[in-house]
């Protein structure tokens, strides 16, 4: 298997795996935030702020894979 | 039908002419678009002068001094206008000029025809029932579809110069061929399938690309193209500067209009940042963090304007922003904690034996963590904005290629579905960048937990 074939097979799969991981993470974050808001609706603002920050951190992992794909895309 | 009708014709022709000229400049050749725009402008000025002549000759206020002056201006303007038209005919392509000249007249005919049609009895009979109207609209759409297909097929069978000029959506081939004068110099309809696959550069065309296409041999054009991202980001910064200046030039106690909107944004940002950092330290950082938010948001959204480009879709800009935040956060740490305090912070604030034993381990972790912050900030912003642009480009290409007759210079705007997503992503990333920057600053500051607990205690006592 040469480099081109390996890259063109591996890049989409890599992004998919990264997306699975951060998708699970985002789901858990959202679930936790929704439950917390349900229990304590008056703290909605604080919870949403924390949720956005943590969601950004989880989402960043997929974006790293995405950026890596664009960096390596020229070699295909 | 009066002067108001002429004003509407002027408005419609201006918009239509601008759009068609931009499309011609993008898809065919920049000079062709310029010629078309010049033709439209010439025709509009001509109409305006004629209107003035007629109004000042037969209008109600004829004979008054101002009216005589306007009449003289109109009479003198006519020769000047015809001279300018002669110069334009010498300089630019006559066919495009003629097409631009005919556009306002076509708009007048179409508007008059529509008015006659809308007043007719058949039209009113058609509109009386909902289903009848829907059926008519459907029939019209189907007829347009087939008519366009037949037209473009006929055009590709016998390519006339006009067709080659108006129905060729190929940027690079046209740019390659533009060294040869005349508009029928290349027969791009011979290879209709390659029209969009030829697009080498990724992304939508932007203003600087057009300028470079118009001046392919000028050194300054290549300079502009090379520093494209910087040009756009500096332009946005200047735009924000002017907006801030205009909003605060004449401050009113009770704001209205533009000042009101800007104050809303500033106040919201101020409250938001103070709610994160705390009421004591927060106001100091509002200018820096608020500017970050507004600037990043404008840069993210700028790519959605046609012929513009998001500077944040380039690693250069995002790394510059993230490095600014990094340097600022370290500077705040040095200033607030002092060099020894900063080192203490980096060692994980050891206070007992366990802390001191763990300190050699904590130092590399903290240093790596500080260095990871700018990388993570810049890559996150870049990924979302670049991905947004690529998504829009991919779906716009799909919208063009999904039509069966590819020679059309337009397509189905498939990417419009993703505009809400693009708006949401842009705003969210600007917000995330700002929130994370303020949290990095907050982590560097000496903790003010005592104050907060005190306030909460007071509040509970008050209950």
Question: Top keywords for this entry?
Answer:
heterodimer; A: 76 residues; mainly alpha; F1FO ATP Synthase; elongated; B: 463 residues; 17 helices; disordered C terminus
Written description of the protein model:
The complex is a heterodimer of chains A (76) and B (463). Chain A is mainly α and 76 residues long. Chain A has a domain at 18-70: F1F0 ATP synthase subunit C (F1FO ATP Synthase, Up-down Bundle). Chain A contains two helices and no strands. Chain A has helices spanning 3-39, 44-72. Chain B has 463 residues and is mainly α. Chain B has two domains: 1-119, no CATH class; 229-462, no CATH class. Chain B contains 17 helices and no strands. Chain B has helices at 3-27, 30-58, 65-91, 94-119, 121-127, 130-157, 161-166, 171-177, 207-214, 219-226, 228-249, 258-277, 282-302, 315-346, 353-401, 419-444, 449-462. In chain B, helix 2 packs antiparallel against helix 3. The longest helix of chain B has 49 residues, at 353-401. Residues 157-201 and 450-463 of chain B have low confidence and may be disordered. The chains are: A mainly alpha (76), B mainly alpha (463). Chain A binds chain B through residues 45, 49, 52-53, 56, 59-60, 63-64, 66-67, 70, and chain B through 275-276, 376, 379-380, 382-384, 386-387, 428, 431-432, 435-436, 439.
Helix content of chain A: over 70%
**Number of distinct beta strands of chain B:** 0
Report the CATH architecture of one domain in chain A: Up-down Bundle
CATH superfamily descriptor of one domain in chain A: F1F0 ATP synthase subunit C
Q: What class do helices, strands and sheet pairing of chain B give?
A: mainly alpha
Mean pLDDT of chain A: 88
Going by helix content, strand content and strand pairing, the class of chain A is: mainly alpha
Query: Biggest sheet of chain A, in brief?
Result: none
Beta-strand fraction estimate of chain B: under 5%
What are the segments of chain A in which pLDDT stays under 50 over at least 5 consecutive residues? Answer: none
- The end-to-end span of chain B amounts to 72 Å
């Amino acid at each position: 298997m040469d480099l081109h074939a390996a890259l063109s097979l591996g890049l989409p799969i890599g992004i998919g795996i990264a997306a699975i991981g951060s998708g699970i993470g985002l789901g858990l974050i959202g679930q936790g935030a929704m439950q917390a808001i349900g229990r304590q609706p008056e703290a909605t603002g604080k919870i949403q702020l924390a949720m956005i920050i943590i969601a950004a951190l989880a989402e960043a992992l997929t974006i790293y894979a995405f950026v890596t794909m664009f960096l390596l895309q020229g070699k295909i | 039908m009066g002067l108001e009708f002429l004003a509407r014709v002027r408005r419609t022709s201006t918009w239509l002419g601008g759009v068609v000229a931009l499309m011609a400049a993008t898809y065919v050749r920049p000079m062709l678009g310029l010629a078309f725009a010049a033709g439209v402008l010439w025709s509009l000025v001509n109409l305006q002068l004629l209107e003035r002549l007629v109004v000042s000759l037969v209008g109600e206020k004829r004979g008054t001094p101002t009216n005589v002056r306007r009449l003289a201006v109109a009479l003198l303007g006519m020769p000047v206008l015809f001279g300018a038209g002669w110069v334009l005919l010498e300089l630019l392509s006559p066919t495009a000029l003629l097409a631009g000249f005919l556009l306002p007249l076509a708009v007048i005919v179409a508007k008059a025809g529509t008015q006659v049609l809308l007043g007719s009895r058949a039209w009113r009979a058609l509109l009386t029932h909902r289903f009848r109207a829907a059926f008519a609209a459907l029939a019209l759409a189907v007829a347009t579809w087939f008519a366009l297909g037949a037209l473009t097929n006929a055009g590709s069978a016998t390519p006339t110069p006009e067709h080659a000029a108006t129905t060729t959506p190929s940027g690079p081939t046209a740019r390659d061929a533009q060294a040869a004068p005349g508009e029928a110099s290349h027969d791009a309809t011979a290879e209709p399938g390659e029209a969009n696959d030829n697009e080498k550069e990724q992304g939508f065309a932007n203003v600087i690309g057009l300028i470079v296409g118009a001046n392919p041999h000028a050194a300054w054009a290549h300079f502009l193209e090379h520093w494209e991202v910087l040009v756009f980001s500096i332009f946005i910064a200047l735009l924000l500067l002017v907006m801030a200046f205009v909003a605060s030039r004449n401050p009113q106690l009770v704001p209205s209009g533009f000042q009101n909107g800007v104050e809303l944004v500033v106040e919201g940002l101020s409250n938001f940042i103070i709610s994160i950092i705390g009421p004591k330290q927060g106001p100091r950082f509002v200018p820096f963090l608020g500017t970050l938010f507004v600037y990043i948001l404008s840069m993210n959204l700028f790519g959605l304007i046609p012929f513009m480009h998001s500077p944040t879709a380039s690693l250069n800009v995002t790394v510059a922003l993230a490095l600014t935040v990094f340097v600022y956060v370290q500077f705040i740490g040095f200033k607030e904690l002092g060099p020894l305090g900063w080192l203490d912070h980096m060692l994980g604030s050891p206070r007992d034996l366990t802390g001191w034993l763990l300190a050699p381990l904590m130092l590399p972790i903290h240093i790596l963590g500080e260095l990871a912050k700018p990388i993570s900030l810049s890559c996150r912003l870049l990924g979302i904005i670049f991905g947004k642009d690529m998504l829009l480009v991919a779906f716009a290409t799909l919208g063009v290629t999904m039509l069966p007759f590819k020679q059309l210079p337009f397509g189905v705007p498939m990417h419009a579905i993703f505009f809400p997503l693009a708006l949401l992503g842009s705003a969210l990333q600007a917000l995330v960048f700002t929130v994370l920057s303020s949290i990095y600053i907050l982590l560097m500051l000496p903790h003010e937990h005592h104050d907060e607990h005190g306030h909460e205690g007071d509040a509970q006592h008050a209950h």
